[in-house]
Amino acid sequence: MVVITVVMIGGMCFAQSTFGAAIGNTVWHDRNANGVQDAGEEGIPGVKLKLYNGDKVKKDKTNAQGRYKFKNLDAGHYTVVVAQETLPKGCYATYDRDGNKDGWYKEKYLKKDQYYRHIDFGYRCVDCCDGVCCVVVAIPCCRHTQIKQCAQLLQNTSSFVI
């Protein structure tokens, strides 16, 4: 809710706007699974999130850069939850703000008009097709003929499953 208060003092008008509190930030591909959004680790678009405040629920979805923002909130306790079923297949959590790696951030208290922009969620995503699973890297590993190439790319960074 946006509230604009206009006060007249000595024949002059003064306006003050209040936009309410906000909470948000990013859901991203944590390609090296270190829990830090490094350069080149892009956001995941289209991920749905829910914001709980008691029995009230708001919904949002990440934009093309993986960003989300719940705004116009009252002061109070909030919980942000990633809808796991809206992540790309093969994703698993590598980071969330409270350290549980469960896609939930529990109990952030927002003060009046506070914007808290540190509720991030990192996911390492594994691409599986044609019976071959590889960590998502620069080249897709979706053909049996690419098994050796994929294995070489992942040799020092991840496991390879057939």
- Determine the structural class based on helices, strands and strand pairing: mainly beta
- Give the tally of structural domains: 2
Any idea of the CATH topology of the largest domain?
Answer: Immunoglobulin-like
Oligomer: single chain
Helix content: under 10%
Radius of gyration: 21 Å
CATH class of the largest domain: Mainly Beta
Largest sheet: 6 strands, mixed
Distance between the termini: 52 Å
Please tell me the CATH architecture of the largest domain by its name: Sandwich
So how many helices?
1
Give the averaged pLDDT, no decimals: 77
Order of helices and strands: EEEEEEEEEEEEH
CATH superfamily of the largest domain: Immunoglobulins
Description:
It is a single chain. This protein has 162 residues and is mainly beta. It has two domains: 23-125, Immunoglobulin-like (Sandwich); 130-162, no CATH class. Helix content is 5%, strand content 48%. The chain has one helix and twelve strands. It has one helix at 147-154; strands spanning 3-9, 12-18, 21-29, 48-53, 56-61, 67-73, 76-82, 91-96, 104-110, 115-116, 121-129, 132-135. Strands 3, 6, 8, 10, 11 and 12 form a six-stranded mixed beta sheet that branches. A four-stranded antiparallel beta sheet has the order 5-4-7-9, with no helix packed on it. Strand 4 (48-53) and strand 5 (56-61) form a beta hairpin. It is elongated and about 40 Å long. Mean pLDDT is 77; it is low at 1-5, 136-146 and 156-162.
